[in-house]
Records
---
Amino acid sequence: MTAEALLSVYGTIGLIAFVLLATRTIGGELMTLWTMTPRLEAVLKAMGGSVLVAIVAAECARGGLRTGMAVLIAAAVMALSRRPLLAIALGMAGAAAGTWLNL
Amino acid sequence: MHPPPPPSLTEPEARQHPERMGFSQRGILQGMQHLAGIAVFIVPFGMAFGVTAVEKGMTVAQAMIMSVLVFSAAAQFASLEFWPSGWPSLALVLATAAVSSRLVIMGAALSPWVNQVQRPQRWGAVMLLTDPSFADGFQAFQQGGRDLGRLLGASLMLWLAWVAGTAIGAIAGERIGHLDRFGIDVLMAAYFTTMILGPLLNTPDVRRAAFAVLPSYGTAAIVAVAGLYLLPPGWNVVAAAVAGGAVEAWRHDR
């Protein structure tokens, strides 16, 4: 890689790391300025959850039947067992089976 | 002598009980122990990132340094969508902020306890904050836990596993072969699915909670998929977060 390209890679990593540090610390800082209203809390929770939903939905759109099946399996196992590790493991197993079946 | 403080304090109440929260090495070790089990599972997750990053064209060193400094699966995977032309770009920064917005909520939720100590210690406690360590710390503090070291220790354990996994994945990348044989490529989607359902399942009335989030999450899903085809890379997540929040703001109290 050229020196310029290296700078943009490591510079970008630094930038992303800064954003992460900011998001980790800013919640506490904001709470010293404002109090949380139920509405604000609901909106922030909805935004946070929406990001997860967005990523999963996009992955399913890209990965097709196989990914969708894995997500459904993980969701069903999670709903029934309340055990995230089991849900993830079985979802992955479903995807592995999907690969084997050429889905 | 006032009576012992109640287990769960609001921010104003917490400020009146400064003697409550501490930050000790013992707490850190305790946190590490508590999350050691989950940490084992984070290793294949880190491997998934390592392999994917190297596949896209990052070097082993770059992938590892990123995991060390960023420590966020969502942000790191999302950033790969922008590789290489979008490194750096405004869209990348906004997408990073969008996928990390959960951390703002978590920081706010922990603030009644975390804000009781001085700023350097606050930041030390949350600088590696992540979903499982938040969940562990939050319930511990709600039940009367007083040591913020626990939060850092739990996060540290997961961080070690994440970095180790990245290293293994990046170095052994080609030899592991296609990720889809083991279903590792769906690991992030499956993990996030459990994180979406977890809080809903923890409520007293799960059905009611599910119906409450359906408008915002449903909107987010539609916007995310539509944006995948209509918007530049990464912006679909940002748009979905804004849309979901807007729907909730409109829907709340109705």
---
Amino acid sequence: MAIKGVSLSVAQGELVSLIGANGAGKSTLLQAICGLLSRWKGEVLFQNVPIKGIDPPGIVRKGISMVPEGRLIFPPLSVMDNLKLGAYTMYRRKQHHQIAQDLEMVMTLFPVLKERIHQPAGTLSGGEQQMLAIGRSLMARPQLLLLDEPSMGLAPLLVDKILKTLVDLRENGLTILLVEQNATAALKIADRGYVLETGRMVLQGTAADLLADEEVKRAYLGKDYEQFYEGLNS
Amino acid sequence: MLQELLQYLFSGITNGAIYGVIAVGFSMLYSSTELINFAHGEFVMLGALGLVSLWGGLGIPLPVAFLLVVIGVAVVGFLFERLAIRTVRKPNPIVLVIITVGASIFLRGIGMLTWGKDAYSVPPFSDHDPIDLAGAKLLSQSIWIVGIALFFVILLHLFFKKTLTGKAMIACAISKKAAWLTGIPSERMVLLAFFLSTGMGAVAGIIIAPITMCSYDMGTMLGLKGFCAAMLGGLGSLWGSILGGFILGILESLGVGFFSSSMKDAIAFFLLLLILYVRPGGIIMAKDIKRF
């Protein structure tokens, strides 16, 4: 899981996609940002302030929320409780008014959660759980949202829905760093992209450039060699 | 026959409530930390002897003494976590369990140095006459014990179901990582779990004080009984622990009554073995036993 010499930046209001195959170190990178990783060399700046060494709850308080891989919702607790726990840091700051607003916002974003608000989160479908996981991290009012493989295990239609939500959130001013194996989908909605390969950043550029890049196409976009050789891929 | 049976039931329910409260302490700590605290019985002892000193010795009014002892013991539990558990560099479960065994011996030693080897007793909480039910006598202290036990368990239940902090504790028990990423400071939740768990231990010690002889070594057996009750009902389940306590208490008292009083302790351990063989998750076997 080693990554080395990797540098990455996300400007305010940007949606940046980090793509790469399984084991390339994408998740490790996210874990380092949100404080889950200990003993590593390097630095992380958020709004020009170093945040390395702060524990995950501290990072959340700084305004960075992560939607972890595998969603990690709290299955026995109700959808409502999951969302409320997402606002834990907000409750501790007594910002009840904002919490009510955010709850409303999440319900508008994912109406299905409103229908299931009293159900145990474990009874939701995979897509709904992913929506809940995103909703829960939004409840902390982040300025930067990190997502680790939100499309994993979901049907294409649901993937589209989730990614479209991210675009909407970006329109509303949220900064997003999206980690995905599903390179095409991730690059289509992104402003810029990075390609991580076995712990090194091999490519970076605007999403449009990366989508057009032959190397990326070959390795990540699922175009096979035959198409290249026969020139069918223009 | 009916009269006898009732009498045994009364005493079984009384003991059961105490085992239940002790079991809840085990369960709650296990839920949040996956740790079996073998020093838990010593906190029961501290509760009982604390009451002996504050109420019996210093004459502080009972409700005040009750509160002071519970808070005092919970603070000891808090320090226990801070000084003995948190400081472990490689906290793997075996090491932690052995630390709790060490803490148990340590606390028993402190108890012996403070209170000596004598056994103490305190009067019942109120001096009402026993109630006569079909010839069986129901002691007023039994009513106090069951009432106070249920009161605290319901309080805990409400805490876990209704308050954000309670839910945050459940969240930590489900997944520390998920809770962390959500912004919940899990170390503080663990600390709170120790505080509440040892506080419950003190409650058990306080309510049992009037019906038993209190001495520095009373905690070990009570702790083990509470552990059996927790395993019986389902470690990690609040109501399972209470249920386990009552079952253990009633079976124990029936066993003593109808067979032999030398059977008393054997019954608990026989039940423990039985449940481990037949239904290791406990009677209330939730899909995930690690939570309330």
---
Amino acid sequence: MKKKNNMKAWLYLLPAILFLGVFMVYPLIDVCIYSLEESYAADGTVASIGLGNFRDVLCDKFFIQALKNTFILVIITVPLSTGLSLLIALGLSSIKTVKKAFQTIYFLPYVTNTLAVGLVFMYLFDKTDRTSGLVNMLLGTDIDFIDGEYWMKMLVTSLYTVWIVMPFKILILTSALASVNQDYYKAAKVDGASSARIFRKITLPMISPTVFYLIITGFIGAFKAYSDEVALFGSKLNVAGMNTIVGYVYDMLYDQPGGGDFGNASAAALILFAIVFTITVINLRFSRNKVQYM
Amino acid sequence: MKVVLENLTKRFPSRNKKGEDVIAVNNFNFEIPDGQLIGLLGPSGCGKSTTLNLISGLETPTSGKIYFGDEDVTNLPPEARGVGLVFQNYALYPHLTVEENIIFPLQNLKGDKKMTKEAMHDKAVETAKLVQIDGLMERKPKELSGGQQQRVAIARALVKIPRVLLLDEPLSNLDARLRLQTREELRRIQRDTGVTTIFVTHDQEEAMSISDLIIVMKDGVVHQIGKPQDVYDEPANLFVAQFLGTPQINVFEGRIQGGKVWIGNEAVLDVPGKADRDVWVGIRPEGFIPDENGPFTCKMDRVEVMGRDVSVVSTHEKMTGKSIRSIVSAENKFKPGQEAVRFSLKPYKVFLFDRESEERV
């Protein structure tokens, strides 16, 4: 009986296993193998070169730049977007009239195409011969946000990323806030707690699993940033100095003279994996005592 | 602390624009004496929880006043009123331990009332001892049984020494045995602390058994206030008579004619001096005396044995319920197959209500 059940279970799992095997497990193993090989495009031969690809990547100034950009983006955008989303979600859950309208407005960026948002940002920030961009006009300044100083470009990128990721976080946080039993708030009110204390002692612990989930996925998402940068600065990110790790991998695959460098691309991808893995483990450790699973 | 409600009214706007407002609490006037245990009793949806929320300050009245002692608290927010509130689902903070839950109200104190950590701890332990949960201080709410959770909720409500303690359906989430035990406990805690306590319930037995005073309400209107026994013995109207007592009172269509109460074509009771009119006749189950020569004849259905007493189930063409239940001593013998049963009635267990207004005659 038990054996029969086992067979059944495997049968049910078969489609998923096949699919995942072909599209996830096999490529993953392949990436690991590629990262240890060097292919010579000229004669099509392949040779194993140990950790040589990793050394090449880590010594590449473009990779170092991409690494730096990615880290800066992660450090700025994850706390900023989560914090802002929480504020907005709190605001949304405390207003009564036109709540639905605001919810819709805040959710719009989520359903908007990344490149379309990029276009909007162009209008806001791009300096051309005819216009200096909406932001410059409003501030009365003359800053080149797209082709100018590094930190100005970083500012625009961060704004862009925060703006793009916020709707999802607001949506999740609003529903988390709505799921907190109102009786807790009533009880706290009767007990004489101030709003600040209610937020700190009741609301935040109650929604902590959601906040934690958003922080983890926020970190992972920010480390995978690429399309936002392309939308703002075009596909030549190395030239703009705004490349990210994923962008670097892409460039290695498709944007190399004489075909892709699969070895270096795989090595860079594995380095990214190692970073994300480490950060997530640290997050899990750090939050173990802070997150309240009811 | 004496609690006085004066012309208290609460209207809720209707959900759709054309509908009428819902009047949850309609022109309440009553005074709750200091240090008593009050049962606010009524069927669900009668506005009793709204009344409690008005007293706690979680809702503001549409009109009318609330006084604690001589102080007008109508416009004070809940935290300034000094009330303790126990929710139906207890609303214990799930992420805090029992001690942290109990201490929570103390940590909110400001100014000269502010307490040191040690003082708060001592106070929490003292209150926990009162409700006998001092051995569970480190547990989280989910690690407690329903009864224990409720004690924690009561401790949290009592720790600040409230002027008024409010309990919303305090026993409804407990199983039957625990309910009996907890209501004794509630009575004891109230006696020990002397805090004026108001609790809401839809269970008449619960309200009658422990309250000093019960307030019977329906559809936002107070129907009767009084000591439980008095309200049971002298119901003001048909609703109160039907709501109190198990088994329910038996109600018949009847009339007063020539100083006698008639049910069908039998004159069952003398009521000298009462004017002729149509009435509802309410007879408590314990008001029937089996009597072969009694004036009231019912069709026998069955006899249910309960040990000390027996419950005689019979029918009558003028009854309003499905059957008539009378509780009589088991010493009365009933023959098997007996078709009719005759009763005489205890006059003080028979109540007459006007057919139209349903008020007591």
---
Amino acid sequence: MLSLPEIKRLPAPIGLPRLRWPFSIGETIAVASLTLVVILSIVGPLLSPYSPIIPSGAQFLAPGSPGHLLGTDNLGMDIATRLMVGARTSLFAAVVTTACTATLGLIVGTIAGFVGGWLDTILMRITDIFLAFPGPIVAMAISAALGASLSSSIAGIAIVWWPLYARIARGEVRRTATSMHVEAARMSGSRGIPLVLRHILPATLPTVAITASLDIGGVIAVLSALSFIGLGTPAPAPELGLMASTGMQYLLSSWWIPVLPGLCVGVLALLCNYTGDGLRGALRSRGV
Amino acid sequence: MTPQVLDVREMSISYGSRVPALLAVSGVSFSVESGQCLGVVGESGSGKSTTGLAIQGLLTRDPSVSATGSLTIAGTELNPVIERGWEGIRGRTVTTVFQDPMSSLDPTMTIGRMLTFIAGTKAESLRWLEEVEIRDPAAVFRSYPHQLSGGMRQRVMIALALARRPALLIADEPTTALDVSVQAQILKLLRREQEALGCGIVFVTHDLGVAKAMCDDVVVMRNGSIVERGSSARVFGTPESEYARRLMESRLTMATDRHRPVGLPEATVVNAMVESLNEGRAETATTTVDAVTAEWNARSLLWSDFAPADVGEVSVPPGASPGAAPIAALEFTDVTKSYPTGGGISRRKTVLSGVSLCVEKRESVALVGESGSGKSTILRIAAGLESASGGSVHRSDVDADAVQVIFQDAGASLTPWLTVGQILTERVRNSKRGGRTSARDAAELVGLAMDRVSLDRALLASKPGQLSGGQRQRVAIARAIVIPPTILLCDEPTSALDVSIASTVLNLLNLLRHALGISVLFVTHDLAAARVISDRILVISDGQIIESVPSENVSSTVSSDYARRLLDAVLA
């Protein structure tokens, strides 16, 4: 090093991550609301005096009725409790579905992108075939074939959704694989799976994670849609799509029975989207 | 008296809201008159770029920047961090030639559209293209930036900057990205245009040679302050400040003494070591290493400090015994390389046409050429990163540990999310020699490698992004020598570094290659650096090696025109 003792070195701005709140005001509200909803949907049902599947009062009570904040449905079940349990199921199912699809897609895409050659061609053509089918319809067909239940809806969505992640992961892996640090890692003797896990995959994870967080909202909507058309858990399960569909016949007389669960799906999806957006911005600003 | 176009008084600029403020520029004063070229010279972190941005009015968008002092451009008082007043100045009175013309030209517009936008008419645009010595103005007028070479793009950039007839031109490292021979042409062009238009130029650069060739006056900056100013002949001839003097010394020229550490004298022990190494060169390998051991034992910089049994035979590579015919560490015989190009099956672009070269054991060979000459391709083939289309490549050691590469951009060659320790340990683990060592021995090897490249072991916990450019290059070198290879391939390892850092990296490489008995193939465009690091220089042009000269007396032995031109570019 240079021996220049007469010059004071300026303090180097390294090592200290800049502690700045990474979200905008709108995103902060979304993140806070989503956190609130998650807490509510987990704690709420435990605190509620009512069961979500046993009638607990008079039928068709309007929102604001004493003892039933959001009223009761056609069978006299407490809507607030059912919404909280339904939201919990929806969120949980959406997270599980997205995690499954992202993992599956990541594995397929990484193998295709890293190995290349004929394996890449075969895997990507399979991906293309899946992408060529209209997603929601195939998901409907699969979950109908597997029998109406939550797990068959999850399977149906996972099967049509993974190709998207495979495409993204493959692109990222191919881009990273040609970068200088991977070349240098090869020169220092890294090969095969360790090379992928240590030097390539960490670069692709943020992109996949961002896509996944943006997808959760969409998956919530699709899951609810499947349950709306009767392909989810059968009644009287507290599921948002199902609640909206069975409540449709009371739309004119007791609007809150179908509208509240529908609104709940919309708000959940929106909050998830905003949060995903915020997450993307936060990760981008950290240079990922 | 010529009118003053730029006057900077006591300008200070700080970034961020840190208290006390981190001053990027502190109390800088200078002025430029019409027809004058002022060089702002400094290394990275000196504040020269911030100064350059401030006088272009390019700091007004960043709310975290604050400034004090005064800035007057062509009689208008301006604040470098407040937008008001800049509209009529920026891009009109003050124009800029940036370092990288590719990223500052709009890729979606033809040169003609961009230029007509400024010059007004097509005829005027074509005249400007002629003015900047573009041979076929009509063709360039219709081209997009990506269709032009780097030198051509920079000429277009200059035309764009001058077509406004600015009072002040800021040239921000305009030739750094260009080949040396093109660099000389661009400088000449800038100089001529300046005389024709009579504008003032602020020439921001880290390259002392360029500043010397180009500027009337220079200011030397360090850590945000001006440490020396004066006419360029005076500053470069008899620098007064200690820093400027040392900066001049660390600059490599064809007259640099190759037998001592270049640049600033480092710790005396390094000097002593290199001297002893050079004296011991005629002796057998063992003697040299013994001599080195004696010098360096205290600093545990030698492999013999580490029980060699644990890592196999790493202390002295075999084959260096006197008398025995030397086996080449790397040998290329008639190697060719061509790539298919887009147009049709049979169209191929030839990069290497019949390259034969040989790097003996313990020899250091520099491969010198300009961009596109095929020098990097040779290195990549030698490294096994690419395969040759024809001919044969032979290495004395075929195992995977025998070849290591140091890349130009050390930052990009280190995996950003791994720590220095992880990167080095991985190299040990991946090697045949080090793979079976215990975790403690591996850590010891890594620590020794850090000592060898003079890096603090505390940095093992840092990630590459937290290190300076020089430190990153040292980490890359540490990775390459933690398990010493037979041959080390260096791809312009110093061209992205500051002069003083570059010379210490060259010293380090020289030191290590002698101490560890490594052969080196050093690819560079810089003859002066090549001379210092190598025993022999190969000049390459258009995929062919056209000359091989001993490094000892390059200037007197080169014969080809091409090599002469490279030489002239260094001397300029």
